[in-house]
Design a protein that fits this description.
By secondary structure, this protein is α/β, with parallel strands linked by helices. The protein is built from 7 helices and 7 strands. It is globular, with a radius of gyration of 17 Å. Bound molecules: nicotinamide-adenine-dinucleotide.
Length: 258
């Protein structure tokens, strides 16, 4: 089999179940010949993910709570053992931190603790990921990392609240890291999809209503297809995007231009 990702080794963070955006991306990359190691948050919340990894020839799976430095060190060890310390791509598809009540009503009602927790899990975790994996990505000579964001980073989207503030930090961090790592041939980009019903999204107040109204407000007049999100990720992770770094690519059927 030959494909756009043939011979490429990578790591995907953020598969919880088969609805996860990270899993849709994984399927696309597998079709194109990628060799993938996965991380999961913990055994309890990731049972479905673990069975997906088992059924789909995962190169490895490793527990990684993004708040835990020891877990990052254990991931490094896996990459050295299984991939010989060379990594061609990374997908960061992790978000969390707010309580349900933070994702409705006034943004500024958020507690100090939940604000900081959201920043750590949803924004700093991408920095921690690339800080840990940069030596392996540099070794590839030409490598690519992506994270997932949402339009609430630049616009006030009702109920998205503290997640929007974290996504703004995430996107800005991606640009700084694109600048840091460019000289070593590592590209860093952001995929920003429109709304998709997943475990994380279902916690945002009024999400189902937003989903219902979304299609008619978009230029392309249709809901977001996760297959399209995965194709955009494939573009950014493959050699097709060798000239692109520090960008946010919207996959929202044009919603963001209105
Ligand atoms: P999801 O619930 O399937 O994925 C979220 C992942 O984050 C889960 O795998 C969860 O285990 C992981 N996670 C949370 N806290 C963690 C921690 N402390 N350590 C390690 N992992 C942790 O939901 P999803 O919608 O697929 O989300 C993936 C990404 O896509 C997120 O960054 C999300 O903000 C982004 N996104 C989602 C939408 C949408 O509408 N679903 C739109 C735009 C962007």
């Amino acid at each position: 089999m030959s494909g756009l990702m043939q011979g490429k080794n990578g790591v995907i963070l953020g598969v919880a179940n088969n609805k996860s955006i990270a899993w849709q991306i994984a399927k696309k990359l597998l079709q194109e010949g990628a060799n993938i190691g996965y991380t999961y948050q913990d055994e309890l919340s990731s049972k479905k993910a673990l069975s997906l990894f088992e059924k789909n020839n995962a190169a490895f799976s490793a527990k990684l709570d993004v708040c835990c430095d020891e877990d990052f060190l254990a991931l490094n060890q896996k990459i050295e053992e299984v991939f010989g310390g060379k990594l061609d791509f990374v997908v960061h598809s992790v978000a969390g931190g707010p309580d349900l009540e933070d994702l409705q009503g006034d943004f500024f009602a958020v507690s100090r603790q939940n604000f900081l927790k959201t920043m750590e899990i949803s924004a700093f975790s991408f920095v921690a990921t690339l800080r840990n994996l940069a030596p392996y990505l540099k070794k590839a000579g030409s490598a690519s990392a992506i994270c997932l964001s949402y339009l609430g980073s630049e616009r006030v989207v009702p109920n998205y609240n503290v997640m929007g503030v974290a996504k703004a930090t995430l996107e800005c961090s991606a640009r700084y890291m694109a600048s840091d790592l460019g000289k070593d041939g590592v590209r860093v980009n952001v995929v920003s999809p429109g709304p998709i019903l997943t475990r994380a999204a279902s916690g945002v107040g009024g999400f189902r209503q937003m989903l219902k109204e979304f299609a008619e407000k978009t230029p392309l007049q249709k809901p977001v297809d996760t297959e399209d999100v995965a194709s955009a990720a494939l573009f950014l992770l493959s050699d097709l995007s060798k000239g692109t770094t520090g960008q946010t690519l919207y996959v929202d059927n044009g919603f963001c231009i209105r």
